[in-house]
Amino acid sequence: MTTQSRMQQIDTLANYPMGTKPDYFRLIKKTFKSGEPMKTKIICFIAFVSYTFYLTAGDIYVSPYGNDNAAGTRQSPLQTLEQAIKQAREWRRLQSPETTGGINILLEEGIYPQYKSLFIRPEDSGTTDSPTRITAVPNARVVLSGGVPVTGWEQGCKDTRIPETLRNKIWVAEAPRMGNRILETRQMWVNETKAQRAAQFPDGVMERMIDFNPEEETITIPTPQTAGLNAASQVEMIVHQRWAIAILRVKEMITEGANTIVRFHDPESRLEFAHPWPQPVIDGEKGNSSFCLVNALELLDQPGEWYQDYPSGRIYYYPRPHEDMTKAQVIIPALETLLTISGTLERPVRNIHFQNISFEHTSWMRPSYQGHVTLQGGFHLLDAYKLPIPGLPEKAELENQAWIGRPEAAIQIKCGNNINFNHCTFQHLAATGVDYERAVSTSIVENCHFTDIGGTALLVGTFPDEGFETHVPYTPFHEQELCTGITIRNNLIEEVTNEDWGGVGIGAGYVKNIHIVHNEVCHVNYSGICVGWGWTLQESGMSGNRIEANYVHHFARRLYDAGGLYTLSNQPGSVMRNNRIEHLIDAPYATNDRAFYIYFDEATDGYTVENNWCPSERFDSNRPGPHNVWKKNGPQVDESIRQKAGRVAVGGVSQQRIIIKTKLTKRRMKPTNYHLFDFLDFDPDLSRDESLWKAYKPTSVYEKDGDICINVPFQKQVLSNDMAPDTASPREEYTLVIRQYTSGITRLFIGFGEKSMTDQSEMLQFSDRVKKLPLQVTQVEGEWIISTQDGIQRALINIKPPVLDRWSELLPDPQETLDLRLYPDGKREIRLAAYDHFSPPRYDALPLAFCKRNGVKERATLSFESKPDECFAGTGERFAKMDLSGQTFFLKNQDGQGVNNRRTYKNIPFYLSSRMYGTFYHTCAHSKLSLAGQSTRSVQFLSDQAMLDVFVIAGDTMEEILRGYRDLTGYPSMPPLWSFGIWMSRMTYFSADEVNEICDRMRAEHYPCDVIHLDTGWFKTDWLCEWKFNEERFPDPKGFIQGLKKKGYRVSLWQLPYVAENAEQIDEARKNDYIAPLTKKQDSEGSNFSALDYAGTIDFTYPQATEWYKGLLKNLLDMGVTCIKTDFGENIHMDALYKGMKPELLNNLYALLYQKAAYEITKDVTGDGIVWARSAWAGCQRYPLHWGGDSCSSWDGMAGSLKGGLHFGLSGFAFWSHDVPGFHTLPNFMNSIVDDDVYMRWTQFGVFSSHIRYHGTNKREPWHYPAIAPMIKKWWKLRYTLIPYIVEQSRKAIASGAPLLQALIFHHPEDKLCWHIDDEYYFGNDFLVAPVMNSENRRDVYLPEGKWVNFFTGERLEGGRWLKNLDIPLDEMPVYVRQGATIPVYPDEVECTDNMDLSKSIGLHIDPHFKGIFKN
Length: 1416
What we know:
By secondary structure, the chain is an alpha/beta fold. Helix content is 15%, strand content 31%.
């Protein structure tokens, strides 16, 4: 290997995304081969050492869900980038060791709203050896947004300025406020698409003006056809004037028959009519200049248009046909500048690098206040006029003067060095995107994407502006004031200049040694790449500029006097070569044809121009200098140069041309084989040794031991945009096994030669109902038919050749495929996604495939077909709408960080379909499940393990399917009677005295309660889990617990499965491997708040460690503790050596092993099988019960909790609870007060849940809410009244497939409405519950089919209809009970369940005599 290729390999290392962990010992071993020159090894070793320093840089983590008072670690991130920059600044000020190798500010996935411009100053500077890197974590989409959502849209408008026929089509919303002011805007995005301000004509369409009168300062136009426009107060005119536009605020419109005379406000009126260049043209070669009127409510007449009224701020919008304004995401910008990097000549800002960040949503408001009249390139005139006597000392022929202002920019950079942007996105920006204004050197913008930008995408250099007359040659006093050594490389710039058409793709003014190379610039309204300023042959510091190998196309869409490549003034030693320029557009409203592929405008000099390809020699020069050299430009340039122009991948492979604008994805610049990259997670640069192997038609099918074995060949695929077989690689053949069970269950298994089918798994616990049914196979006319011995068909393999009418060779024949249909219950067909529905080379789903990396099989995928109207549910505690179709989930347990996002503590690899089947993926590997999300016609599953073991369960009811799932993975056990009472907790009680005082008060004030839970504060140190009571605050733990037991209270204790560095047990745990040994030092914040803040994870794959852990719990249970809260468990130390399996497989399974251990020891000691668990995986339903994690004490938190609970119940779990009234508060996480109505409504929700526990970050006892305390007590007593019913339904649940909280689809899967209702549920079989989740005390309720009775009022109601806008008093909740039902209730008031004898329960008959629970 050559030294050059060695360095390329090191470059690959250096380009690893921050936060990834490459196996660099393997890489360096691969690099150092024996027999190679020592010089090569030394070079590689130096580069390797440099890279390891990079890996050991100080990391600051930021997350939208973080806290700016946190430590900034991965486990406890900050919330804002501003705070992270401040922390980095402090590290540098204090010369902290974290600065060694650089500082990495790592942003987690999400949107980061900016309410002021982010400011980076000289004190934030890095060094060459220690830069500051601001980057997204791997695979995250990070957005810095200056936008604000517009909500509260209402349909219909009564404003008479809108024609009556359109009023009901218009939607109206109030503008949001920023501080104490209404937010004004000129931009609005609806579902990420920019809406057009209400205009006289469609976007881009204009009308020719009649006259332009400088003396009167008027423009005469044809009289508009829109009624009432003359009276509109906010009208603007967009004027097309040669190479620029003007935006003029209309002052007056005077109609004289067919003509209307228009006057304008100052200052723009004076500027527009005083300055001659540019001005509108009258009687030009192709007619007069054009105009368009915009921004009046009277003009709002087309879908996609909008208008903001002044001064009310009210926003009017005419939606496009596909837009649902009840769901649309509407954003308006609040900031003009997102990021300011500003130093001084003496103290520049240095060494700041941005990577994988998207900068979005900025405004541009100056035209609303001052109009907008430009000279060129988007630079607006501050003052300008024609000279009565021409000439300046520097330019004798000059006939006008102008002073210009610089356009506003989303990112402004002044006085800096090494300020770099890599793989960033700049979109939805209203003015300039990125602006290197002055005195910036040695900086790079590369691999970035600029799109949907109102002005110039990327601006560089002094122009100059403000106090310097723009035609005078600019020679800076300090040479460093010039921008020098800027590299702009490999960027895609498209669909920019959409507000100020006179902007450009890349614009550079007075610059030196700028390199603009391998960029693609397209779909711009004026010129593509422009370098130079000043209109003079005199030298002014510009020199050594290089414009090379760029691809410019589709330019000059609206203006003229344009160039694909455009230059001005003298630039000695500059080069323009190897570019490709094409698709010059004839602007429809140009008044002449002056537009060129290369345009040397006034006084261009010093350029060597060679080997630039364009379709014709359409070039022009305007008074050029004598030192330009032209060599071989035009269509005669070699084809190889044409092909190499434009963007290239990191490895040097040309990237695909992107002509059509597409929706933003997390990997914008990648090949387009979306199956490989969007679902299979292939490296987009194809730099890894990865390969895809697709299933082909079976070679044989046979029966073996009652199973059907299918020999399936797999063909390696070429990694290209169009999928095709790699015929140079031989096929590999593996056996797919089909096994049939009773209960309508079919099993598919393929181990790819490495794994065998087994029933021995922690996740599996077959019931007696699961019996294997022998299968047989027969071949009939191109089909293998697989059936059970009773003749019922269970599967079919189609091998028939397709019927063809061959008339075209346009596309290749499709590859072979695996066409397999399953009939688990002998009725329903579940079919693999065998065929693509577009074209053979593009597969949106593969029926069966596996992936290799470095020659090792590492991932496998399987896809079923879905139907257009198919709905899905389940997958664990999923905080999402009831119908999960269209969504893709990453099945990896992790901290849910609340209940309103895609993360969850409880992923279950099981889903239910409205087609009445369910699928259980028997794996604990990290997986991806797309429910008609990636492919809208497929259910796709991707496992990070080269094995697929899939159970497909069919049934006539949801209960049958869920019971089938429990038949495979186990049934829940029955929780003890006391667990159905009230649990009281908070984070946290700190002493026995505090707990006794609370318990005594509850008894004195007659609040029934069964459990008191001690959270994180019962140890020696809060959160320091040592499984021992604090001896000072709990001097007699056993006596304390027994005393509470005598009062009718059980004690529950918090703990977690990690051992802290300073815990009493740490030496014992390490010595005996009870915690898994770490393979690397873990990041830590010292807060004891997550796994990585502890020394190690208890290894439940190691039997001795499990027994040791049980011993710790037994000591507590022997004291009288009755329940262990098995908190955490959703994540483990991934860089550790576990005895039984790799951490990548253990992470999901860990919850099951952890809860099983705690459950078993609890049952052994107390006789009651129970835990209080947060995380879960398949099989955890055997060990109840689980609660919903850290929800916010808000309506959103309540709604999210219910959604999660309903999906959790549809994932095999019978029992589930949630923190009442939410875990943490707003706006202060720990210290804000919960609103009374939230507390009350959440209490009602808790009463009608399987279990009810009060818990949270501050006080939760009811007497702290005196206004509602009497109502709370009343509802607590109702809970105890209903315990006989809850126990009865629980006994039914543990013997069936039912949960306690049942989504409406559990009973009514055929009712399409029920698939979209996630805020109602059945409680058991007889109650329908509709919690109120708003402060208005109102809601709609859907009553399913049947006869219902209001549980509180006794009102009789027919089902199958909506009850609209119900007014619900705070002490009631919409609860309906089936007419004719008998509800077991307890007739007496009790203090706890110890006082209950369930044999004394009575039946509450819901008959004509029932008047309501509180009235009977």
